[in-house]
Every structure is written in structure tokens, then in C-alpha cells.
Task: structure prediction
Amino acid sequence: MKQLRTLSELQSYAREVGPMTISVACAEDAEVIEAVEMARRDGIANAILVGNADKIRQLAGSMSIDTDKFEILDEKGGESAASLKAVEIVSSGRADILMKGMVQTANFLRAVLNKEKGLRSGSLISHVYIHEIEKYDRIFFISDPAFNMYPDLNAKVSIVENVIKLAKAFGVETPKVAVLAAVEVVNPDMPPTQDAAILTQMNRRRQIKGCVIDGPLALDNAVSPESAKHKGVESEVAGYADILLVPDIEAGNILAKSIIYFARSKTAGLVLGAKSPIVLTSRADSSETKMLSIASAVAMAAHQKKK
Result:
């Protein structure tokens, strides 16, 4: 497949490989219902809505959404019960994608990690933001801005491997990974620069495959060829990064939200590292962001099916 360079191209691709089936945990959420309806109308995905059936129908009706277009499974046993049922639908093969609705993240993830019915794959669970930013010729993947607070070197290896798989699902044949830090030189007093140097060497020794890694790189010389040239940073990644590996949750969260609020951009978000893609978005996210997240999950699920 060709490399997807915009989220509009992603939507078109998701239509080609879809529709997939989403299992929504605690689906009594107006914005989530609106997003799955948008995905259904667009031919990207169908949905199984798990939760309080009366509330789901009431909410959908208030938005003039026909619930007969969806399968609704009534579960009034609370967040944990509804989440586990939604997860089981995916783990049993009835659905391809899991999506979080009106449920606390901790309860949702507890169901995902359930030893008997969950979606454990043996990999670290991580989060990624996917950004289309005006004036750039490619999509950026930022990880991990939400789950792993202060990842050690081993965790960073897993985070990179998770995002590489997603980038390849977007048609990026050899993703360029910039390991971000405040500076582009190794400083013993700045641990993220040391991790970056080790990750770079692990990639060169083929301990991390399927990508090109370089770091430490400051943000400017990771995404701007002019900045990299001005600073004398020469590498295949400098100025052309696809994946931005952040040092910790603060840096990742601030970077991702700065893009959302300060730049002309479109955004999606996914949870990676489970057996199936997981759509987990913020209540503050727009219906468009939720729908684009579903499209991202469809692309990822299609890639996993090919494998």
C-alpha cells in the first residue's frame, strides 16, 4: 500500500479495508455514539454497543440516530461488567476493535488486562497520538503521551516497537524514529539523552528492527531539515522523523496538546500493544477525533489480519 500522508487519506483507506466491527464498552456516551454512527455511515466500521441499553437508545434517539443499525447488548452490572463483556466480544473474535465509552480508564484497562478474557499480547501497553499538521508532508506519531509515565529503556524499546507496527499499517515502509530530548548531544547529566544514544545503537545492531532510529534529537532538528542543517546534525532521521519518541508523559502530553490547540491539525489516538487495536479518547476530544481514531484502528486491524 502507498504511504498515508493525511488523515483524509486514512479515511479513504479505512473505507477500502473496512468495515470492521467495534465493541464499545459502556456505550451510553453521546459523543461516542455520534462517532460510531459517523464511522458506520462512512463505511468504516459497524459497532456492538455494550452497556445500559435504555440509556444508549435514549441518547441515540435524542440525536436522531437509528439504533436498529447497531447491535446493543444490555449490561446494567456497572462499568466493570460492561467493560469485560465488551472485551470478551473482541477476544472471542466477534469484533476487531475495542473502544472505551463512558467508563473510568482504570476499570476499562482492568478488563483489557483480564487474564482469562482480556487482550494481553505479552507486549507493553502504550498510547500514541497521530497528527496531521498543516504544511507537513506526512503524519506524525507521538508516543507515549498518556500511559507510561517515566519509561525506562526497556519500556522505550516496547513503545517504539508498538508504534513501528502502527506506522507500517499507515504504509510507512521504514519509519524514521526521532528519540527526543532537550538537546542533540549525549549529556551524562540528562538521562533521556543516554537512553536515546542506546536506542540508536540498538537499532544499528538490529536489536530493534524495521525502522531507522536516531537520537538524541531536539524537536526542531527532528522535524525541520533547515534546523538540522543549521545545527550540523546529519542523519537519515534528522528533519524527516515520522515517529517522535518522547522521554516521559509530561513531555508527550504537552507536545501532543500543543499541536492540538496551537496548530492547524487533525488528530487521532490509539492504545497499542494489545491483541487488537483499542480506541481510547478523551472526553474533550471532538467527534471528528474519535472517528479518525476509529479509522486508525481499522487500518491497524487490517494490517494485523494481513500478518
